[in-house]
Task: inverse folding
């Protein structure tokens, strides 16, 4: 087929075709740029969201650590306070017990010695054991302990009195001097400071 169009027309048609192709490439490039910008924007938003989420998580972790350390510190302070109170109570009991032994020993009649003292399960009560030179002195122990003048016990009851013979007691130096043993149960006098040591059940020996 022979193209008889003028040269100018031919050139216009060629340039028109080139322009159409160029416009298509420009449009495709524009779409590609828009897509790249969209991907970059979405990536930036996602990255920023991740950073914000991580920052918030770190802050929550810090607050939880602070709270945990505060609770741990408070727990330690509470433990120390409880331990200190317990130590104070134990020391108070030991001091009172020492004074009780001293005053009880001073209240005993001549010819007797205190050999054992223990807290019984009865609130306000205490068990005592004393050694005496004879039966009469052993009974006098009970009278002296419940004497209001001594201001220690309201009441003292004899549980048992045993006296060894001279032959049975000669093998033990203490029993040879104090062959009689008297066991008593006594109740503290009202408003007596020694009753504090009976707030818990236990026993002790001087």
Result:
């Amino acid at each position: 087929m022979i193209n008889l169009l003028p040269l100018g027309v031919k050139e216009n048609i060629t340039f028109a075709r080139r322009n159409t192709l160029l416009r298509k490439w420009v449009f495709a490039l524009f779409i590609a740029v828009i897509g790249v910008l969209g991907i970059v924007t979405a990536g930036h938003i996602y990255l920023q969201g991740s950073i914000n989420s991580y920052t918030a998580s770190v802050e929550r972790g810090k607050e939880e650590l602070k709270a945990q350390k505060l609770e741990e510190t408070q727990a330690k302070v509470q433990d120390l306070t409880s331990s200190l109170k317990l130590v104070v109570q134990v020391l108070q009991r030991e001091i009172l017990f020492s004074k009780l032994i001293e005053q009880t020993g001073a209240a005993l009649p001549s010819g007797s010695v205190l050999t054992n003292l223990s807290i019984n399960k009865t609130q306000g009560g205490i068990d005592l054991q004393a050694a005496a030179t004879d039966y009469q002195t052993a009974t006098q122990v009970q009278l002296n302990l419940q004497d209001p003048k001594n201001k220690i016990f309201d009441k003292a009851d004899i549980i048992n009195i045993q006296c060894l013979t001279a032959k049975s007691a000669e093998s033990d130096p203490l029993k040879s001097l104090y062959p009689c043993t008297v066991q008593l149960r006594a109740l503290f006098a009202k408003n007596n400071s020694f009753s504090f040591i009976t707030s818990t059940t236990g026993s002790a020996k001087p």
Summary: The longest strand covers residues 153-163. Residues 7-107 form the longest helix (101 residues). The helical segments are 7-107, 135-145, 166-169, 173-177.
